[in-house]
């Protein structure tokens, strides 16, 4: 008995360093007009059984290319491995012909991808897709395959696994689909699991569940996990070791504690400094009690009709926004946070007159028509919007200078000369140079494009800028700089911001006041200090607790919370949801009862 | 589902009503006089007038159309002016031949077009791809009477593999079906190519490959069914293009279908037959589209008919 105990503790202290995968001097290149351009250069690392190695880096760092190279899934024929070795145990993968590689892919190395929404075949059932993965590698009787598939679904804690087998991907939520992807990957108990941004597309509470799941599965199966992510919070919580990559090269490698405690390289330091952290945000600024409001939203409701039947009668309503009220003072940043489908973007669209609504919206002292169109031109001048995807919101065939000048042209402001002058000023103000005015959007990076969008929104000197997930698609270092820019603009021009985001840490860093939305209603609102310092509503607490903490020494309290899906905002006609009543717990801090 | 079907059938009836009105008006406004054709060159003015009255062609447009419509509702397409028999009988006798030709052509163009498209997509950018796309371009742009005559010359006259014209056996069907199908296979190969390229780029194809599935299985099980979805709707629309094509092709090959019937009727301004063939064609187009829409949900579970 004593001996066995000793053995176990011994094993825990010095885990058996059984190397399952090693990469040596890996170089991946893309063939282009001017020869081979390396995407990944001389990358070497190895990973042992039961270990989690995080490859962290921003977009373009080559982290995803590395994972595809290991899987042998590089997009042919342009991108290929041009040097180095990848060893899975005894087998050298880069030399294997495709037919041989198929045997290892999915069986001994499996992969889960970033986009659960598009990573499953839409016209095959979940059961078919799982079965297929098993049958590709093992010759088993039908019954046993079925049993293994169900076992895998239970392992990823999917409710009603038997029913899921007959469902199609579109019938499942994003979190469930990612669980299915994980089930597919672990069904064959691979030696190595590559998780490429597995939780980036998921809501924060769902992310928490998926991360816990991955950790539990690893403890159970001893799988080595290569975790590819840009999120240093996820790295800190999950990884044993970290590789930091930049422009295809390894910048730094080390234990997670070492990297976070004492980052050796400048780039790693910058990366860690840029990560928005909860509890550290908020400069000294405290919203002064303002008298003048730029926007007053009173009892706003938006619902969409679902028609069905022969005559297209309205049978259901989607209650996207339900009796929501808030005010935005001049020069303050008001943030709405919530998970996907909570109605936060609908609020934004309604405020610029794109959606019909009930209730009252006053912007800069002018009431907005309820039909969702014909917003007066003056109003459109006072409110501007910045969207999530800067590439999609810039016309690719127009020069960026013309794009920034366009609002001035539409409103007939200034002569051509004055407009050019103003565009130059705006470009300089958002940190771009004069000589970039005549270029096209595709010539800029993501962060620069978002700066162009910001310049465009500033052109008309609006009173309110609505930023809908405006920094969500940006890398952290770029995100930090754009947030600084927004902050500076706010102070310089006294513009009010409505900042809509799912990212609690970002909101905590930038907002003066915050509203938390859930299922179309505000469940808690107050100043940043009130909501983040003393969250009252259980949903607010859940959101805050779910945020990954970029500190490896942080001990997450054990949570015993039943995982549940957010209920649907679609309800039968006449069955409107109950409007929550807000109770004031301290000055300006309102919480749903 | 039943509600959807009712709604669609009601829409179809409206479309057919519209088609009948427009066609009837165009034929009414025709500068040529059908009565002259019936009566012959030597007929006196009196005879012509008698025939006109007999056929009711002296009545105003509204009256004529109303009469036609009331007949139509009872299933009466009228009598041919020149061939003394019911239009419905004439069409019924020739419809099977046209349907056979259509089925043959659809099979031909789908098999050829989809295969070409898939191969081109899988070999994207290669010489094979470029050759196939040039071939498909020729297929799309060549007029059917030229293709028909060319096929006749090569395969019937020179090689003697197939009969020159006529109807009855499978070998009679090959050349006319190929003539009709070459145009379509050009379209389908191009559409299939781009659809396939789009699908091969999707994340779920990468997932399928990451599972370790063999290449053929990724293509047949995952890529093909998804790539074919947008094509299905096109098959419905295709029926309409066919109806235009059969008039030419049936005349070239002496195929005894409604296209040939229509061609003869147009030459002799036999208005009831022209009306009848037009309406039957319109029916075929409407039904083809409806069928394509009804089939889609069985392949794509995301689509529900409401």
Write the SSE topology.
The complex is a heterodimer of chains A (593) and B (306).
Chain A lengths: L1 H12 L5 E14 L2 E14 L3 E6 L5 H9 L7 E10 L2 E2 L5 H7 L4 E4 L13 H10 L6 H14 L5 H5 L8 H13 L5 E5 L7 H18 L2 E6 L2 H7 L2 E6 L2 E7 H6 L4 H9 L18 E16 L4 E17 L3 E5 L6 H8 L6 E6 L2 E2 L9 H6 E4 L13 H11 L5 H14 L16 H13 L5 E5 L7 H18 L2 E6 L2 H7 L2 E6 L2 E7 H6 L4 H9 L23 E3 L9 E5 L2 E4 L1
Parallel strand pairs in A: 3-8, 3-9, 6-7, 7-8, 13-18, 13-19, 16-17, 17-18
Antiparallel strand pairs in A: 1-2, 1-4, 4-5, 9-10, 11-12, 11-14, 12-21, 14-15, 19-20, 20-23, 22-23
Chain B lengths: L1 H27 L5 H6 L5 H11 L5 H13 L13 H36 L4 H15 L2 H15 L11 H31 L2 H8 L4 H39 L4 H10 L3 H29 L7
Helix pairs in contact in B: 1-12, 5-6, 5-8, 5-10, 5-12, 6-8, 7-8, 7-10, 8-10, 9-10, 10-11, 10-12, 11-12
Kindly describe this structure.
- Chain A has an eight-stranded mixed sheet with strand order 16-17-18-13-19-20-23-22, sandwiched between helices. A six-stranded mixed sheet of chain A has the order 6-7-8-3-9-10, sandwiched between helices.
- Helices cover 34% and strands 27% of the residues of chain A.
- Chain A has 593 residues and is α/β, with parallel strands linked by helices.
- Chain A has 20 helices and 23 strands.
- In chain B, helix 5 runs antiparallel to helix 10 and helix 7 crosses helix 10.
- Chain B has 306 residues and is mainly alpha-helical.
- The mean pLDDT of chain B is 86.
- Chain B is globular and about 85 Å long.
- Chain B folds into two domains: 72 residues, no CATH class; 178 residues, MetI-like (MetI-like fold).
- The interface between A and B is medium-sized, with 33 and 27 residues.
């Amino acid at each position: 008995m004593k001996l066995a105990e000793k053995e176990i503790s011994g094993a825990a202290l010095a885990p058996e360093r059984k190397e399952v995968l090693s990469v040596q001097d890996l170089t991946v290149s893309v063939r282009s007009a001017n020869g081979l351009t390396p995407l990944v250069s001389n990358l070497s690392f190895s990973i042992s059984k039961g270990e989690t190695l995080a490859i962290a880096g921003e977009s373009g760092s080559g982290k995803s290319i590395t994972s595809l190279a290991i899987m042998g899934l590089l997009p042919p024929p342009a991108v290929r491995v041009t040097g180095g070795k990848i060893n899975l145990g005894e087998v050298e993968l880069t030399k294997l012909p495709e037919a041989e590689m198929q045997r290892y892919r999915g069986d001994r190395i499996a992969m889960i991808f970033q986009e659960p929404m598009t990573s499953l075949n839409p016209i095959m059932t979940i059961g078919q897709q799982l079965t297929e993965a098993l049958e590709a590698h093992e010759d088993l009787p039908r019954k046993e395959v079925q049993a293994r598939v169900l076992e895998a679904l239970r392992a990823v804690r999917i409710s009603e696994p038997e029913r899921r087998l007959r469902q199609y991907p579109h019938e499942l939520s994003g979190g469930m689909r990612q669980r299915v992807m994980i089930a597919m990957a672990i069904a064959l108990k691979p030696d190595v699991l590559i998780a490429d941004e597995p939780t980036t597309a998921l809501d924060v509470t769902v992310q928490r569940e998926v991360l816990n799941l991955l950790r539990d599965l690893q403890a159970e199966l001893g799988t080595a996990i290569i975790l590819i992510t840009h999120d240093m919070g996820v790295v800190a919580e999950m990884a044993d070791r970290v590789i930091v990559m930049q422009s295809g090269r390894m910048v730094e490698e080390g234990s997670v504690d070492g990297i976070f405690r004492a980052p050796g390289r400048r780039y790693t330091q910058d990366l860690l400094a840029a990560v928005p952290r909860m509890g550290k945000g908020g400069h000294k600024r405290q919203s002064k009690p303002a008298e003048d409001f730029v926007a007053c939203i009173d009892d706003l409701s938006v619902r969409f009709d679902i028609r069905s039947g022969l005559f297209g009668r309205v049978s259901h309503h989607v209650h996207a926004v339900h009796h929501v009220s808030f005010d935005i003072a001049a020069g303050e940043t008001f943030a709405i946070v919530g998970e996907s489908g909570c109605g936060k973007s609908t609020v934004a669209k309604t405020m610029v007159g794109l959606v019909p609504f009930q209730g009252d919206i006053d912007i800069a002292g002018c009431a907005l028509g309820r039909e969702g169109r014909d917003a007066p031109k003056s109003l459109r001048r006072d409110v501007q919007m910045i969207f999530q995807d800067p590439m999609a919101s810039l016309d690719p065939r127009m020069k960026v200078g013309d794009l920034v000048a366009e609002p001035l042209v539409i409103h007939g402001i200034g002569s051509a000369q004055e407009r050019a002058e103003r565009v130059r000023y705006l470009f300089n103000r958002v940190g771009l140079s004069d000589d970039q005015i005549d270029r096209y959007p595709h010539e800029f990076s993501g962060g620069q494009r978002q700066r162009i969008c910001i310049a465009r929104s500033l052109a008309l000197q609006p009173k309110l800028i609505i930023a809908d997930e405006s920094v969500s698609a940006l890398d952290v270092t770029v995100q930090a700089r754009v947030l600084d820019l927004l902050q500076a603009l706010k102070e310089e021009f006294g513009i009010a911001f409505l900042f809509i985001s799912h990212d609690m840490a970002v909101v905590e860093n930038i907002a003066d006041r915050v509203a938390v939305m859930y299922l179309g209603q505000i469940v808690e609102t107050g100043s940043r200090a009130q909501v983040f310092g003393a969250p009252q509503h259980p949903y607010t607490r859940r959101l805050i607790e779910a945020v990954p903490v970029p500190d490896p020494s942080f001990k997450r309290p054990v949570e015993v919370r039943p995982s549940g899906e957010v209920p649907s905002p679609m309800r039968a006609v006449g069955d409107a949801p109950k409007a929550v009543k807000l109770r004031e717990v301290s000055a300006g801090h309102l919480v749903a009862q | 589902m039943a509600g959807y079907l009712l709604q669609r059938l009601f829409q179809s009836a409206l479309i057919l009503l519209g088609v009948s009105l427009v066609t009837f008006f165009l034929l009414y406004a025709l500068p040529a006089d059908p009565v002259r054709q019936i009566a012959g060159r030597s007929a006196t003015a009196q005879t012509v007038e008698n025939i006109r009255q007999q056929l009711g062609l002296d009545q105003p447009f509204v009256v004529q159309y109303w009469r036609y419509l009331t007949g139509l509702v009872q299933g009466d397409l009228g009598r041919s002016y020149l061939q003394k028999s019911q239009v419905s009988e004439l069409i019924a006798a020739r419809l099977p031949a046209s349907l056979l030709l259509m089925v043959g052509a659809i099979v031909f163009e789908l098999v050829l077009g989809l295969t070409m498209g898939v191969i081109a997509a899988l070999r994207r950018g290669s010489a094979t791809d470029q050759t196939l796309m040039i071939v498909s371009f020729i297929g799309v742009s060549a007029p059917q009477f030229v293709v028909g005559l060319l096929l006749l010359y090569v395969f019937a006259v020179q090689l003697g593999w197939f009969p020159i014209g006529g109807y009855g056996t499978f070998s009679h069907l090959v050349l006319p079906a190929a003539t009709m199908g070459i145009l379509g296979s050009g379209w389908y190969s191009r559409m299939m190519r781009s659809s396939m390229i789009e699908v091969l780029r999707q994340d779920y194809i990468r997932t399928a490959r990451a599972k370790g599935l063999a290449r053929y299985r990724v293509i047949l099980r995952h890529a093909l069914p998804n790539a074919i979805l947008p094509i299905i709707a096109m098959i419905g629309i295709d029926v309409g293009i066919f109806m235009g094509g059969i008039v030419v092709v049936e005349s070239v090959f002496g195929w005894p279908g409604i296209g040939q019937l229509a061609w003869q009727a147009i030459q002799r301004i036999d208005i009831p037959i022209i009306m009848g063939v037009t309406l039957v064609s319109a029916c075929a187009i409407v039904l083809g589209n409806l069928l394509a829409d009804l089939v889609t949900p069985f392949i794509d579970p995301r689509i529900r008919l409401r």
